[in-house]
Amino acid sequence: MSDMKQEDARTAPVGVWQVLESLRGEELTKWRLAELDNVSSVEMRNLDVLPYPFGWFMACYSDELAIGEVKPLQYFGRDLVLWRGEDGQPRLIDAYCRHLGAHMGYGGKVEGNNLVCPFHAWAYDEQGCVTDVPYAKRLPPSATKPPATQYKTCEENKAVWFWYHPYDEAPKWEVDRFDEVFNADWTEFDKHEWIVRGPIQNLAENGVDAAHFKYVHGTATFPDYQMSFDGHKRTATVEAKMGTPKGEIDGKISYGTVGPGQSWTKFSGISETLLISGVTPIAPDRIHIRFAFTQPKEEADGPMQGLAKALKKDICKQLDQDKVVWDRQKYLNRPIICDGDGPIPAFRSYFSQFYAEWEKEGKKTITSLDVDKKSD
């Protein structure tokens, strides 16, 4: 009886690969964060019509902020300063001293739980109130009052998160916790990051764009998917034939978003994997994406480690492929949609709930929807 040969079921290289095929190792890592040439303006790409969404967003990983450390940040078109007090708690305020405008992220220091400005040693608490001026007989009354803009912080899933809202409304939900992150039988985070030249809207919308999986990521078939929109959360299950050198295998991806800034993905079929993602806007045309993978140690370090590593590499490759498109994508307010696309218009109505400015304008949103799509 002759041996049956397994057919290589990998698809031909996807179109965006001409941009990526020569990038390897350190060069690829640099490309993920590099500035780009020949990118059209915010106005030409219609990105100025999109506000920043509100929600919880990642500021940094917990191990990137030691006790007593001060870190300058730039998100939401603002200069911010983050520090960790002696009590271990992270704090975030606007970066510029209310005295004469020094940037406290450069040269500022932590005393107790307060941040001290490097210029004249004015001290600030987590509300941005001045608590001490060492050479003043009395504090200026206006300096002791908190500024209008406040940034609530929390620490979850080994990361520091902050709440952004354009009208400074209080947090409306909490950051979701994942027990695998703290399970001793799972690996420490394997981290990757990108700067994408586009708005968070395009990234979020990508998750419901079913057709692009074949043409951008090279899946063997159009995927089947189930999606559920419920308040600030969106969950989905995507099933697709995955092409491998040894033939097609059934792949299953479960993912969800918690507001616009936190997402998670669980992979099964090849190697069990949890991906925690943080997506934070820098400017109208820039977002900071962080991927943190964790896997069962018995798979990551055992006989299956080759597959476990290959899966993470492939997931990052998919983000690279998306980035090629996102970096120069234009936002179309009235796109032409065909019957084979995913529920893009419904998703836009759902996602618009996170644009507080649009809510004031009375734009219609939806907060509940279920979609079940089987490929033909």
Give structural attributes.
single chain; 376 residues; alpha+beta; Naphthalene 1,2-dioxygenase Alpha Subunit, Chain A, domain 1; Rieske Iron-sulfur Protein; 8-stranded antiparallel sheet; 4-stranded antiparallel sheet; globular; disordered N terminus
Overall number of structural domains:
2
H/E series, N to C?
A: HHEEEEEEEEEEEHHEEEEEEHHHHE
Query: Describe the biggest sheet?
Result: 8 strands, antiparallel
CATH arch. level architecture of the largest domain: Alpha-Beta Complex
CATH superfamily of the largest domain: Naphthalene 1,2-dioxygenase Alpha Subunit, Chain A, domain 1
Uncertain segments are 1-11
> Radius of gyration, Cα only, in angstroms?
23 Å
CATH overall fold name of the largest domain = Naphthalene 1,2-dioxygenase Alpha Subunit, Chain A, domain 1
Describe the structure.
It is found in: Membrane. One of its GO terms (molecular function) is cholesterol 7-desaturase [NAD(P)H] activity. It holds the Pfam family Rieske. Its cofactor is Fe cation. The chain is of the alpha+beta class and about 375 residues long. The chain contains 8 helices and 18 strands. The chain has helices spanning about 15-20, 25-35, 200-205, 210-215, 295-300, 305-325, 345-350, 355-360; strands at about 55-60, 70-75, 80-85, 90-95, 110, 115, 125, 130, 155, 160-165, 190-195, 225-230, 235-245, 245-260, 260-270, 275-285, 285-295, 370-375. The strands form 4 sheets. Strands 11-17-16-15-14-13-12-18 form an 8-stranded antiparallel beta sheet. It has a 4-stranded antiparallel beta sheet with strand order 5-6-7-8, with no helix packed on it. Strand 3 and strand 4 form a beta hairpin. The longest helix has 22 residues, at about 305-325. It is globular, with a radius of gyration of 23 Å. The model is unreliable at about 1-10 (pLDDT under 50).
